[in-house]
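The following record pairs a protein chain with its ligand, magnesium ion.
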Amino acid sequence: MTTQARLGGQKLTRIVYSEETIARRVDKMGREITESYTEDDDLLVLGLLKGSFIFLADLVRSVDLPLQVDFLVAASYGSDTASSGDVRLVYDSDASLEGRAVIIVEDIVDSGNTLNRLVPLLSERGPKSLEICALLHKRIGPLVKEPRWVGFDAPEEFLVGYGLDFSENFRHLPYIASL
Ligand code: IMP
Ligand code: MG
């Protein structure tokens, strides 16, 4: 591991998903998404910031369909490593969802609080379909809707890198590591 892995005074214990492993999986997910829609679906890829920014950037480059990208920022209040049940939209997309095929892109599903709050809210906006694409899934709590595409079933550890942070650090690492 390089010096960048020791930013923030925290030590990373091991690399859980290497850059190559992630790249292969994300490319496959993009191709699966391509096969699941047609050119007429008016696809809108909605990323949940900040954690999904790198995943989404790689994912959409493997999708061979016309699509648009927009973002939401949801915040949940809690400690650094545990999310609370209180989820709030701090930035909303102004894209219309009406009649469109919408894919929510999430970095990691942990308690499921974020998705359980957002899915009903976005469903009310009248999308033709609403699916979830998550890079990592800890499979902890019950979800109002399961992700249609999951990159990896994640271990119950705190993970950082490839967009995932600990107190805003480590997002830039090209791999995913355990803190
Ligand atoms: P949930 O609402 O508990 O499902 O948590 C979702 C959000 O919590 C994710 O989008 C992440 O921003 C954050 N999160 C949950 N687990 C981890 C982790 O292991 N590392 C970094 N962030 C995490
Ligand atoms: Mg986070």
